[in-house]
Amino acid sequence: MSLPKAFATPEDYFEACFDFFTKYKFILDGPNTDILINKTLNNIDIPDLQCLDVYDENFTLNGFKNIEYFKDFCTALENLSVLYGDVEERTNNIELEAPVGPKKKYEVITLAKEVEDICYIYGCDTVIDVGSGLGYLDQMFYEATGYNVLGLECNLSHYARAVDRQMKYHESSLENVVYIHHRVTKNSGEDISQYLRDYFRNHGAVCITGLHSCGDLAVEGMSLFLKMEDVRTLILMPCCYHKMERKGNRFVNFPLSSALKEVFDRRNGEELIGVPFMRLAAHPTQNDRSLEQMVFSLMSRAVLQLYAFTHKCTVSRNRRKAVKVRKCDTFEDYIAQAATTGFTLIPNTPIYGSIPVSAEDEQHERINNFDLDKLRHIWRSYPEVYFKKAAIYILMQNYMQPVVENFLLYDRLLYLKEMGVEVCEHKKFFNEGQSPRCIALTAAKETK
């Protein structure tokens, strides 16, 4: 159930969410890289913050109810929170033999078992895997059940590797596991039905699943579930909400339910709910780094962003992990990586050659258009209490994440109910420590 116990109706819940999100808008309406540009941390006003040991491993916001700022935040948060209960550990008799890490292995084994169970309950003998990737889930599910699996993948490289893996390691599955290079949309129903007729002529009821239904893919899967007559069940793990398609200043597939649409339009939701909001909904709250390390990473990157902003430049990453923060003990370590291999400064107005340097700055230490002396000056200009505000900011984001995600997911659940689907719920399948994206949408059509 995704409606918190404090609320009698979805409308009351959505209104309360908007009140809460509006009050703490500064947490939601900008990228973390811009917190110094936007002076975001100035919104955190806590008396005697310099006296609090925010880096103590036992420090929590709800442990200081005598501080009004924390009390108001935690009380509102508690009313909006949903408890999903403990995760039932699942095992599978089939071992996943693939070069994947423990997280991926745990996810594949767990979801395969959940799909097996829902197929058994509702009599499905065929599975459609939307966003099938390299096919790990499909092969494990087939080996456990012998059921048909249609894997649909839009990434040509992933599709080709899945086919290659099948030919090398799973040749016995060729008649029952079929991969198609196909981008799933809400209009894919006819094509998918044809694939099923072509490859699994005598198939029965169908289950739609997806381990990482990125961006709009989960909503497209819901649409296919509603439209396709043969599809009886649905079990999707949504992720990467910030990658959902936008038109203008609104998301195409949010909100979905009539209840939220009415509140959203009346409250000018597009002014509050943008990409940063959706990014927070997908944000992992558990991290093996200390809070102090996360503050260092946040502030270091924000200093780079502020420097670029004041010099009318854009910061561009040179690689996925631009800076190996775990190897940085000091800001000097950070900028040594950032200015050399990590980032590139790109002027907002095209120029030829290097960025012009004033006579006053001529003697400054520079690497690839980064003025290291100015970066050091910005870093040192922020007092220790500002870093503590950054710690509070991180904690507030972590506390808000489940509420933000539930707000999004409940809209989807409510939409299914509005469309006449009575059997639907969000269920926690994974332990957060092992997989941060742990909530699945399950649904089933009642058999006649």
What does this structure look like?
With 448 residues, this protein is of the alpha/beta class. Among the domains are: 102-255 and 406-444, Vaccinia Virus protein VP39 (Rossmann fold, 3-Layer(aba) Sandwich); 289-382, no CATH class. It has 14 helices and 13 strands. Strands 3-2-1-4-5-13-12 form a seven-stranded mixed β-sheet, sandwiched between helices. Strands 6-7 form a two-stranded antiparallel ribbon. Strand 1, helix 5 and strand 2 form a beta-alpha-beta unit. Helix 4 (102-122) packs across helix 5 (136-145).
Q: What characteristics describe this protein?
A:
alpha/beta, seven-stranded mixed sheet, two-stranded antiparallel ribbon, single chain, Rossmann fold, 15% strand, 14 helices, globular, 448 residues
